[in-house]
From TrEMBL:
This is Peroxiredoxin-6. The keyword Cell wall biogenesis/degradation does not apply. GO terms for molecular function: peroxiredoxin activity. InterPro entries: AhpC/TSA, Peroxiredoxin_AhpC-typ, Peroxiredoxin_C, Thioredoxin-like_sf, Thioredoxin_domain. It comes from the Eukaryota. SUPFAM superfamilies: Thioredoxin-like. Pfam families: 1-cysPrx_C, AhpC-TSA. It comes from Cariama cristata (Red-legged seriema). The active site is at C15. Keywords: Antioxidant, Oxidoreductase, Peroxidase. Residues 1-145 form the Thioredoxin domain. GO terms for biological process: cell redox homeostasis.
Length: 200
């Protein structure tokens, strides 16, 4: 499993807090066999200077931050939305670092990939809203559970909560697969499609 997320520049306030949180949670992601990679436009020297201030180096080997991304000095943009996927390099744009824009139209993305190298999840955040790595960790737990078990996770699910039996699984097969029991939620419509079971 892998997580790729954009980290536009070193010493920018929001992503500084994000990288710090990602580094702190890196051991939890490692327990789940997840490799995290943060993508940045800055050079290696800037990363080293930033990591000394932030303390990311304490988690060396757990969080790969940051991979210097230089694409002929061009900004990486998401053309389909017109939003910036990675905040543009201010040096390439003739700006000073302090002039770098940080607006709701600037975007930061998170991509989660499975062992089959296929995209399992993508989340788009405005650059002014910090990403929630506790939620990303929860999502990974759900993705891994539902990839290997015939279940789905309901709203606000957390590890250890009951899960839902997928609708395509017949009742008799569900009883065999989930020996702890399958419980159907009563609905006003009388439909019996909300089936729950303790997390396998």
């Amino acid at each position: 499993w892998g997580i790729l997320f954009s980290h536009p520049r070193d010493f920018t306030p929001v992503c500084t807090t994000e990288l710090g949180r990602a580094a702190k949670l890196a051991p939890e992601f490692s327990k789940r066999n997840v490799k995290m990679i943060a993508l940045s436009i800055d050079n290696v020297q800037d990363h080293l200077s930033w990591s000394k201030v932030q303390g990311v180096g304490r988690h060396k080997g757990s969080l790969h931050c940051c991979l210097a991304l230089k694409a002929r000095g061009k900004a990486h943009t998401e053309q389909s939305t017109g939003s910036e996927l990675y905040i543009s390099n201010p040096k390439a744009a003739g700006q000073t670092p302090s002039a770098q824009p940080l607006t709701p139209s600037s975007c930061a993305q998170v991509f989660v990939f499975g062992p089959d190298k296929k995209l399992k999840l993508s989340i788009l955040y405005p650059a002014t809203t910090g990403r929630n790595f506790d939620e990303i960790l929860r999502v990974v737990d759900s993705l891994q559970l539902t990839a290997y078990k015939k279940v789905a996770t309901p709203v606000d699910w957390k590890p250890g909560d009951s899960v839902m039996v997928v609708p395509t699984l017949p009742d008799e097969e569900a009883k065999k697969l989930f020996p702890k029991g399958v419980f159907t939620k009563d609905l006003p419509s009388g439909k019996k499609y909300l089936r729950y079971t303790p997390q396998p």
